[in-house]
Amino acid sequence: MIDLQLLKADPDRFRASQRARGGDEALIDEVLQADVSRRAAIQAFEDARAEQKSFSKQIGKATPEERERLLAEAKTLSERVKALSVEADEAETAFGRAIARVPNLVIDGVPAGGEENFATLRTVGQPRDFATEGFEPQDHLALGEALGAIDTARGAKVSGSRFHYLVGYGAQLELGLLNLARDVAMRNGFVPVITPTLVKPEVMGGTGFLGEHADEVYRLEADDLFLVGTSEVPLAGFHMDEIIDLSEGPKRYGGWSSCYRREAGSHGKDTRGIFRVHQFQKVEMFSYVHQDDAEAEHERMLALQEEMLQLCELPYRVIDVAAGDLGDSAARKFDCEAWVPSQERYRELTSTSNCTTFQSRRLKIRERTEKGTVPVATLNGTMANTRWLVPILENHQQADGSVRVPEALRPYLGGLEVLR
RNA sequence: GGAGUCGUCGCAUAGUCUGGUCUAGUGCACCACCCUGCUAAGGUGGAGUCCCGAUUAUUCGGGACCGUGGGUUCAAAUCCCACCGGCUCCGCCA
Q: In which pathway does it act (predicted)?
């Protein structure tokens, strides 16, 4: 949820943000109007309620003969309070719905426009020149199947399309990668956490996933629970309804969880292999920081993601995602995209979002400061996930179909240097 | 799945039977000050969260919050209903 005070003080900033996102500017005026109605309704109710309270007190002390008369008056007053209370509730609800629809205020400097309007911040590493090396690179599925590491046929048989088994080297590689990610995160202050993967509606909604992208989320109708698409969700919910202490610095968590995504609307996209699947595993950074420290923390997360890519010896580029492609919660998002030889292009491997106070306002996560209790900023970022196996296999493949293991991963694979 | 029991301002608890004097008491912890000659004790005061308004270094007024949501009533922490959560026991099960 956005900051109402800020919206009232500077609505043009929010209109500009909506423009950059390609969103609806009129929404801003709807919220302002709803706020006026809400305040009027609340005031009317509270005045009546105050009157009723003092009246009610008199009745308690009244003599029997006074009582009769007072009761009659109190009764009409009571009815008025009830009616005004309903009106106030309705106005409050209408306002809540309006403001909940406003996505986060985009940070200055984020490129405007849709998915294709991203800005490339830097490109690191050189893609291999397979032509010079004298062989045609295979894609990750061909490599994975030959190694007995990836089995999508049986995944489809058992669970349907976009499901897979990781077997042998595949399982080892994923666990190794995730353990490396967890270690790097832990060294940098992210406390490892294994989270629930089913969450209540208020947590899923609070993190902003039930807005525009609600059809991406699996829902368990019978239990009114949602399967998380990332441990960002349960980690954001971790401190829900709490006043946390950030006086000793940020709270940093490294979540490890399975992730579930419906991939609605991506029919026909990336259908081969394990690039886009319904279920995968991920190690995710999540930080709660003081508002003013959010942008520094964002850079810090990005630096750790780049460290991971470098440890896996992958060529990549970093992009500043355009406003229209941000999602409701994010005020800015950086993606790291790794080179995928079989596709001859960079593909998203990590994402880190600065959600400023958007999530914490909904989830009621605050800290105590000299100025009172204020919402904290939340940030999240990928450390590693199943998708990483794609560029790792492809970039490190050798002419004979074997795959060289990046040095940083070897300790996690029992010293294994080559998968063959 | 069944039975019992509990849910109160950081923690621990009183208050619920018998609705109004609860503007929620007490202890611990916390903060400020005072007193005290010694790593302590005592005294005084303060202190929660959210919303609305006025005024804005701030302060003041009003309202809401006793697990959540309904209901009864002039009036609900207190009575009624539903739900959620904790604990104990029974049954069933990976």
A: Aminoacyl-tRNA biosynthesis; selenocysteinyl-tRNA(Sec) biosynthesis; L-seryl-tRNA(Sec) from L-serine and tRNA(Sec): step 1/1
Per-residue model confidence as pLDDT tens digits over A401-413: 999 999 999 999 9
Give nearest nucleotide to A54 (CA–C1').
B75
Whether CB of A361 is under 7 Å from strand B: the answer is no
| Continuous segment of H or E residues that includes residue A394 | helix A389-395
Establish whether the CB of A262 is closer than 7 Å to any nucleic acid atom in strand B: no
pTM of the shown model? 0.92
Does 3.30.930.10 match the CATH number of domain A115-419?
A: yes
Domain residue ranges in chain A = 4-100, 115-419
**ipTM for this model:** 0.82
> To 5 degrees, how large is the angle CA A10–CA A12–CA A13?
75
**pLDDT for residue A307 is more than 70:** yes
Q: Are A176 and A413 in contact (CB under 8 A)?
A: yes
A344 marked as binding residue: no
Q: How far apart are the first and last CA of chain A?
A: 51
* Sheet architecture: strand order including A372-375: A242-244, A365-369, A372-375
Percentage of residues of chain A with pLDDT beyond 70:
98
Can you give the distance from the CA of residue A279 to the C1' of nucleotide B86 in angstroms?
A: 33
At the topology level, CATH places domain A4-100 in Helix Hairpins (1.10.287)
A115-419 matches A4-100 in CATH topology: no
Distance measured from the CA of protein residue A74 to the C1' of nucleotide B19, in angstroms? 17
Is the shortest CB-to-strand distance from A9 to strand B under 7 Å?
Answer: no
User: How many angstroms separate the CA atoms of A163 and A170, rounded?
Assistant: 14
Number of H helices, E strands in chain A: 13, 18
Catalytic machinery residues of A: 261, 276, 348, 351, 387
Q: Residue A162 annotated as binding?
A: no
